[in-house]
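Annex B. Sample input.
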Amino acid sequence: MSRSDNPRPDWKGWYYSGSAPHWDVPEAYQLITFRLADSLPQSLLRQLLREARSMPAIKQDSFRRRSIEGWLDAGLGCCALAHPDLAAAVRDALLHHHDRRYRLIAWCIMPNHVHVLIEPRYSLPRIVQTWKSMTTRWMLLHNDRLGLGMPGRTLWMRDYWDRLVRDEQHFKTAVHYIHQNPVKAGLCASAEQWPWSSANPGVAE
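Annex B, continued. Sample output.
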């Protein structure tokens, strides 16, 4: 086992990155969402922040998440992940450390964001950073040739969202949410039809 695959890094527990809380502990199921750098205009995010501040604090986080999920499903930004070559590069990055740094349970690559359910065996922020680094390098090599439309040299937003899976029912809900996202967004009629998802047996293998 290489030094980079050491399964016992320093776990952070609860911590904040930017304004988002994260829970970094070993062997706890995590639902992770990360998105393209141009997926949400800053004007929309500023509007969202103003609206959230007018609500009770206990409702603000869920309101932000629902709003952002709806905007992402609307397909804002260049949607570079709709290109099959980049989607394949993201899929390969997710599978690269499966059964070493984490157990990959469910995943779905949408045109401008990615959902993943894993059981981490390694530091969660390092896992996500590896996915982003691998795919950013690939994008920089192929952006112009493929016409991906990514502005500048940044592929992903710096932060990500993670949710700790609380129990068996939450686990089932998380898998369903991931697989049904392209159906909900109107991209396909059934989860099995979406080519970039663990619900599609031809791609998940």
